[in-house]
Amino acid sequence: MPNTAVVTDSTVSLPKSFLEELNILTVAYYIHRGTEVLRDLVNVQRDDFLKWLPTAEILPTTASPGPGDYLTLYEKLANEGTEEIVSIHMTSKGSGAYQAARAAKDMLLEKLPLLRIEVIDTLNVSLCQGWMVIEAARSALAGMNLDGITKKVKSMIPITQMIQTADTLRYLYMGGRIGRAARLVGSMLNLKPLISMQDGEIVALGVARGLNKAYLKMVETIETKVGSMGKIKIAYVHAGAQKEVEILKSMVESRITVVESLVAELSPALMVHTGPGTSGLCYYPVDK
């Protein structure tokens, strides 16, 4: 049975319990706040960052880990006896993480040609990426080899969906991550923008008048996608909006069969772009 490691980035935003129980390894993103260089979830944590963010006059910038960051972890794993590595990353259209990990793979394979490394672009973000990481890690613990894990993760890419709303799109706009949802920036303040991901880019799903109607639209969108008999796994995601996602959770699970769920808060590197008050969900349909 090959020894297969699962690597991802801090922006996967999984609860610490999942990382520990499933042996998931993360590489931290960088946050540049003035002259400070912070490492996501290393020397900056969610609560403190969320309190500070609304006071920022200039939005921090974020940067993906570099090839050296991935190379350091890959080498450590190889030295510990790991034979296979699956490295799973957010959309390459919004971050350089995938390209950096590919570069690290090429560098290491020159030294260790028998090591097997697969680098995957999820074309998605946060807990959509998170579900792929969770299922990869569970498969690795069950003894599945790299080829099987890669096939499983890639089969999830086209069916794993994110829907999110926020108090404002200001943070996405200022951070240059607005993608094809730019037309929603000028929406009235009492309207809640709904965004998703398509082909690795942020896209607009429209607006709703008030949070409850935004949540209702999320539920209806899932129902349309999976059908009345469909079953899903779902993560409720937020940035300082725990109470709100609990409401969303109740609305979803009163109408849709959920076989597994979790609630997670975005990492600081993602909060930079979403801002406080963000809430939403990431889900994918399952057969069982």
Protein described:
The protein has 288 residues and is α/β, with parallel strands linked by helices. The chain folds into 2 domains: 4-29 and 64-156, 3-Layer(aba) Sandwich (Rossmann fold); 161-286, Hypothetical Protein Tm841, Chain: A,domain 3 (2-Layer Sandwich), CATH 3.30.1180. 38% of the residues lie in helices and 28% in strands. The chain is built from 10 helices and 13 strands. A 6-stranded mixed beta sheet has the order 10-9-8-13-11-12, sandwiched between helices. A 4-stranded parallel beta sheet has the order 2-1-6-7, with helices on both faces. The model is unreliable at 183-188 (pLDDT under 50).
Distance between the termini: 27 Å
Q: Largest sheet, order of strands side by side? A: 10-9-8-13-11-12
Radius of gyration equals 19 Å
Q: How does the overall form come out from the CA principal axes? A: globular
Question: On the 0-100 scale, what is the average pLDDT?
Answer: 91
In CATH, the architecture of the largest domain is 2-Layer Sandwich
Top-tier CATH class of the largest domain: Alpha Beta
Key descriptive features of the protein:
six-stranded mixed sheet, 288 residues, 2 domains, 28% strand, Rossmann fold, Hypothetical Protein Tm841, Chain: A,domain 3, globular, alpha/beta
